[in-house]
Design brief:
By secondary structure, this protein is an all-beta fold. The protein is built from no helices and five strands. Strand 1 and strand 2 form a beta hairpin. The chain is globular, with a radius of gyration of 13 Å. The two termini are 14 Å apart.
Length: 71
Amino acid sequence: MEKIKVVHDLTGHTLTVWMDDPGKESVCEETTDEVVLMKDAQGRVIGFELLHFRPEVTDTSLSVETVVHAS
């Protein structure tokens, strides 16, 4: 299974999720919902960034739940 990288920036208030190597990023596109899509040279989405991310809990840890569905 591929690895997913999750970055929570406490200072910039962003949550970034990479589904591929961030070094492959070629273009960024902001949506109307304050989400930035990071794409590779072929236009495939390899990550996204949620702007203004402020969790309701003040704990600095980030809990991630993994759910895998077999096709």
